[in-house]
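Note to self: keep these together.
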Amino acid sequence: MSRLRTGGSRLLGFFRKRKSDENLDAELGSHLQFLTEENIRRGMGPKEARYAARREFGGVEQTKESYRERRGLPFLDTLVQDVRYSVRTLVRSPGFTAVAVLTLALGIGANTAIFSVVRAVLLRSLSFPQADRLVLIWATNATNGEMHDVASYPDFEDWKAQNKSFENVAAFTTRGAILTTEKQAERVSAVQASAAFFDTLGVQPALGRAFRSDEQQPGAGRVVLLSDLFWKRRFAQRPDILGQIVRINEEAFTIIGVMPPGFEIPPGRPEQIYMPMVRDANRNHGFLMVLGRLRRRVSISAAQAEMDVITRGLAKQFPRSDKGVGANVMPITDAFLGPARTGLLVMLGVVTLVLLIACGNVASVMLARGASRQREMAVRAALGAGRKRLMRQLLTESILLALAGGAAGLLLAAWGTRLLVALFARNFDIPRLGDTHTDLWVLGFTLLISAAAGIVFGILPALGAASLDVNEGLRESSRSSTGNLRGQRIRSSLVVMETALALILLSAAGILLNSLLVMRSTAPGFRSDNLVAVEFSLPRIKFAKTPERLRFFASVLDRVGNIPGVRSAALVADLPLGGGEDGLGFHIVGRPDPSPNTSFQANFNIASAGYFQTMGIALHAGREFTEGDSAGTPGVVIVNDTAARRFWPGENPLGKQIILDSAQPPLTVVGVTGDVRQRSLGVAPKPEIFLDYLQPGPDWPWLVLVARTTEPPAKLTGTVKGVAESVDQDVPVLRISTIDELLSSTLAQPSVYALLLGVFASLALALAAVGLYGIVSYAVTQRVHEMGIRMALGAAQGEILRLVLRRGMSLAFAGSLMGLAVALAARRVIAGLVHDVEAGDPLAFAGVTLLLLAVAFVASYLPARRAARVDLMIALRYE
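Structure:
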């Protein structure tokens, strides 16, 4: 209690210093007056009495200081003094202050902008109770190395029944569904889930109820829940929605509930519907994501160990389906946000390097400035300031400067964050990106890195002040004191560090830029100009049989092909660069399989007559599909060049036959086409075999229409969409786009990362160049007298120029070697930003190194030229 009263008294005294000082002066004055009067009564004269009173009382100022220390908060008093002095010092040097604040604002602003996105996407917990206990259990495949595969329903049931690590286990899958009303058909995002799905997530409907286990049985009453946003948009937030009937995929469903606001799974899909899942007994059919909630005090590693035991047992029990199948338990946040996590964290690391370079720049300038203030520091030390007091003063000045840079950085970050969100939203599918905003976490982060930056670039000048020799500082001239060898070495080390960090960022940007240029120069294998692609979503019930699908697509082909301005139209299952690939096993007639239990493998696709001509894909041998290829004619296939080389090396593939199913007749190769980049421009073509869509084969429920126009496709997309939708009102057009847009979208991800890295690397290069220019220029200023002596002894201007250039370029070379070593070690991390990007080209590393050295040469040449042109008499007189 006494400590509390003492603390309160000190705090009160801090805020009443002036009044307390007046009272103290009055009290001390009364004491001295009393002693003086007492001495006068003893017979002393007035002057002698005052002198004796002061001598008897002791040091008045020391008494005041002692009283102030007991009365107030000494540390806070000192801090206020330091802040006031720092403000006055910075205001007296407006040029230095402005440059330092701007430099720090660039680094802090970039960090704050990236952190704002990281905070929204990665650091905010998902909207589920105790989300840290939620995991996703992926299936793994030892055969192809897949670590994030989907599981079959029987495997899910066995995992659920045999584990002891999870409170609840549920399964779900996402797919599109057609919701039909009287006015239109709309494709919606649908989640099919097991009965324990909502219990596992710990979320219940805000309106109505969740699924019951009996509603998963085949033929049970069909029910559906709506997401909050979908309910508000489609049904105007009607409170009487429960019990209403809607048609989904041509079947009647009863609405039984509405989920609470903010509920979405996976994140980023706010408009969804939720339906019970019907059991699929096929253990070879993987289509489920398995969700688990860990029991309390059960770790992910313990759950993983148990799942490893369970999957090994299933592999022994069901070798035909589960051989090589394992399980991968990971936190739900990592599972849903993994692709975005890598890119954002790498970008956060990049801007951290930029901030370090900025701190190095400011530290170098402050060291030079501190050297010029050594006489000031020596005088203050001689007057009684301790080393800790000097260090605290300089650190206060640094932190104050950093906080000013942080405040300016917040303004830059507000603009930069909006730019980043717009850039990412246009080119990436990142969940929760729209939630990015400046909150207390972002403000706290900015304050933290500002204070940390102030300490980082202020600690070296502060340590220098603490180690100052007072006698030497008072005795030496300003010029000699600023030229100390230790300070030069520290500043040189900072420039080497900045150069190394700049080269690391330049190398990262060079890797992505080089890969982007390679991808841009890669021929896709088709002509993308004047091509339109139309994607449909066929209701499953209405088009369950192949004849209905064929009639629909034949009608679409006929109507679109007759549109004025459309040169030709065709169908394909997996559109090039659309990312879709479907592999099948097959046998080659007259040739044994690769092994007794393994058939030949290739990607299979389905196309219509005229497809290769419409796409502009080269036909190298034979023919393409024609209208004569139908269900009643012998089966034919067309192979690409890679398949021809792989399966019939050194032979003519025309006339060769393959078998997909032993129950079906063989298919004859009638054509060989050029290779097409099916997955991405950065992925080499794989063996691909095309089937005619009119002939019997694998059941393909989707096809994409492609049409080549005689004029810019943008003029015809609306017409093509309207004609396609007029064929059947129950079939919505999912998307219509030009192939040029699709081609551009494949380059979007590497382009964005290359752009961001290029901007940050350019900023780092500029800061490093400024730092190098500063140290060389400072060295020239300190050595003007030396230059004069050299020229007086006969040194030519060229020798002076080379002397200064050698100094700057040696630092640049040292930094380049360090940076190149780190960049080579970290190139795999940068390559991981974008799929199918090579880990680094030696030419890219050589190019960025030469660029850095060229900029360093310019930064060194400017002060070197000034040194070579100095007036001899001025140099000899310089002090």
